[in-house]
Design brief:
mainly alpha
Length: about 400
């Protein structure tokens, strides 16, 4: 078993004899010194950095897709400015706020400095770099256009992550409101309603049906609230585990998601946008169409489009035109098929796919904005009915008692 890598702080002199220092990721100090010498640095001091309190606090941080997108953009900028690849990694790593991402970048830098290619270094980290990313970097290195490829990858990652963030925000907003409404309602039923119940007992009169229903609900919640919480927690955990471990269940959820009202249409358009954007990026990079479709299928984001793209790939590999094979699947809209057909005839397939991706990304943006605008009054009305209903139920007996007193007077 390979030893775990650690971060070593070093001091030394470069080829010009100037004093320099920095950090390097390695399995031990001797290997770290060897790596430094390969980089033209004569190390005078190499010490292992202890995790310390800050290290313990940062242990839980992970490398996210947004970190990879930022890394790609910054590396593309460094390369475009003419900074050597290894030095670019050092500069980008220094600017990263996420310690886990910084460690990953330094690990890749050390791998490249030891003589491996960029593509080989990132393929050693499959949890953070998918096949599409690795294949495009490999194509850039082979063709001598790594700088251009990084620029395309950065744009692709940024647009893809922006689209994902837009959809997540649209779906998280109502879920967050429902969770808050449930918590507030639970607190009212368990803590507030019993206080009113004690007041009502002193009235000596029969409570209105609506108030009595809320009081009964409060009594039930006081006695069984822990079971409600346990059932909800068990359901959420079981649902997540089933979606994670059962491919059939996960695929069924993805198929169902495309059929949901309003949300399904947004998810469908986002899949089309992702398909067009990914295929445009890979095809423009000089990746053969069949190989590009293999990468696109993995980035589809939904089993319906994964199966459709796999079918298209099989047809294209047997000599069928891309637009005709897409039409056969009945998964792609006519506009995208027509744009692909025009792109194939004119020899500008990547350009037409890029236009299709931009069009559908804008459609998703507009649909999400429209959905958010529509949901805000609906959610406010829902909160008013739930929370306001509980409050009215508590004050209804007081209002009736006031009417009885005024009527008697």
């Amino acid at each position: 078993m390979a030893a775990a890598n650690s971060i070593f702080a070093w001091e030394g002199k470069d080829k010009a004899g100037r004093k320099t220092k920095g950090e390097i990721t390695s399995s031990n100090a001797n290997i770290a010194k060897t790596e430094l010498r390969k980089q033209g640095i004569t190390p005078t001091k190499v010490t292992k950095k202890s995790a310390g309190l800050s290290g313990l606090l940062n242990m839980g941080q992970k490398v996210g897709a947004s970190d990879i997108a930022l890394f790609t953009r910054q590396l593309a900028t460094m390369m475009k400015a003419g900074v050597p690849l290894v030095q670019s990694f050092e500069i980008v790593a220094d600017g990263m706020d996420n310690p886990a991402m910084r460690t990953l970048i330094l690990k890749i830098r050390d791998d490249i400095a030891s003589g491996n290619s960029f593509a080989h270094a990132i393929r050693a980290n499959p949890a953070h770099f998918d096949d599409l990313f690795c294949n495009l970097i490999d194509a850039g290195e082979q063709s001598g256009s790594l700088e251009t490829m990084l620029e395309r990858l950065a744009t692709y990652k940024e647009k893809t992550e922006a689209l994902k963030a837009k959809i997540k925000s649209a779906m998280n907003y109502p879920i967050a409101v429902l969770v808050v409404a449930s918590i507030v309602s639970g607190i009212l039923l368990i803590k507030v309603v019993p206080q009113f119940e004690e007041i009502f007992q002193g009235f000596g009169a029969e409570l209105p049906e609506f108030t009595q229903m809320v009081v009964n609900m409060s009594r039930w919640m006081q006695e069984w609230w822990f079971i409600v919480v346990a059932v909800i927690a068990a359901f959420v955990i079981a649902f997540k585990q089933a979606a994670k471990r059962s491919k059939a269940f996960h695929d069924a959820l993805e198929r169902l998601s495309l059929k949901l009202p309003v949300i399904g249409d947004i998810l469908d358009k986002s899949c089309i946008a992702r398909f067009a954007r990914t295929l445009s990026t890979t095809f423009a990079a000089g990746v053969p169409l069949v190989d590009a479709l293999e990468s696109v299928a993995g980035a589809a984001g939904n089993i319906v489009y994964y199966d459709a793209i796999k079918s298209v790939k099989n047809d294209v590999s047997s000599g069928i035109q891309l637009n005709y094979s897409m039409k056969k699947t009945e998964a792609f809209p006519n506009m995208v098929i027509q744009m692909v057909a025009i792109g194939e005839e004119s020899g500008a397939l990547d350009s037409m796919l890029d236009k299709a991706a931009t069009y559908y990304e804008e459609m998703v943006d507009n649909a999400v904005d429209g959905l958010t605008s529509l949901m805000e009054p609906i959610i406010m009305s829902f909160l008013g009915v739930v929370i306001g209903g509980l409050i009215i139920a508590m004050y209804l007996p007081i209002f009736k008692m006031g009417d009885a007193i005024s009527g008697g007077g």
